[in-house]
Amino acid sequence: MKKVYLFLALAIPMMASAQLLEVTSTTRVASEANAKVAAFSPNGDYLLLTNTSNQGLQRFDLASKKITPITTADGAGYNVQMARDGKQIVYREVTTDANQIRRSNIVRHNFDGTPRKMVAKNQRSLEAMAIEAERPSFSVKDRQLMMTVNGETRVFSPNGQQYSYHWASLSPNGKKVSYYISSVGCFVCDIDGSNIQFIGHNILAPVWYNDNILVGCDTKDNGEVVLESVIVAYSLDGKKQVLTNGEQIAVFPQAADGKIAYSTSEGEIYVMNIK
């Protein structure tokens, strides 16, 4: 990724079927092609950026516009875990040996200047990376949704193991989890797997904006490539709002307090400010 980012402020009108969120402005982070948002800090002060292959991580501070390289490792941008205070992250570094066997190291990185720490080394199977042992973390293995708590991992898969699961996200209060099932749609359930609620057919890559609203992308494709994609918000009581105007192929949102970031097919990064 380039080390220089240009901020361009522009207004993007909303097309909404319900007013869930008020977008006051949208800011473009102009970067090299192939950029993607890996995570948003909980208080909305910085982004973690990677590329579309999940290679490398950089911290981008929204106020100072400072770029801080973290790693260039393969796989570092996939399923990054962040502490609730935003001061620490856990990510993976993937290597491939001479026999083409992929292995991962799990690294804990602190933003206070203390040395990073290797917390797991040369692992072939990493179901989840928990930054807080007692707080559940989720991942996908062999199409199944997995939950890890206190170092123990088990199959979660609330709708049954006959489905293929993707994109699990824990609510900010830790009481609910959202997930996507291939060819079915997005669901939410309680942390014990009960109270399963269908959210929508086409809300891909869902993440929580707050405890009552999810954001994701609504896409159309021709079976090979994505032709259209907009960022959408869904409330748990069934309301929907389209947040982007469809002029871009907007994908993979990440949310924080008062902000939503997303990537485009051109490798551009945008941040929406929410009132």
Please give a handful of descriptors for the protein shown.
single chain, 275 residues, mainly beta, Methylamine Dehydrogenase, Chain H, five-stranded antiparallel beta sheet, four-stranded antiparallel beta sheet, 53% strand, disordered N terminus
pLDDT averaged residue by residue = 88
Strand order of the largest sheet: 1-2-24-23-22
What's the CATH C level?
Mainly Beta
Q: Please mark out the parts with pLDDT under 50 across 5 or more consecutive residues, or reply none.
A: 1-16
> How much strand?
over 45%
Structural class: mainly beta
Total individual domains: 1
SSE arrangement, N to C: EEEEEEEEEEEEEEEEEEEEEEEE
From the spread of the alpha carbons, the general shape counts as: globular
- Determine the N-to-C terminus distance: 31 Å
Number of strands: 24
Q: What is the overall number of helices?
A: 0
Q: State the CATH architecture.
A: 7 Propeller
What's this model, at a glance?
The protein has 275 residues and is an all-beta fold. 0% of the residues lie in helices and 53% in strands. The chain has one domain (6-274): Methylamine Dehydrogenase, Chain H (7 Propeller).
Question: Describe it for me?
Answer:
This protein is mainly β and about 280 residues long. The protein has one domain: YVTN repeat-like/Quinoprotein amine dehydrogenase (Methylamine Dehydrogenase, Chain H, 7 Propeller). About 0% of the residues lie in helices and about 55% in strands. The strands form six sheets. The chain has a five-stranded antiparallel beta sheet with strand order 1-2-24-23-22, with no helix packed on it. The N terminus is likely disordered.
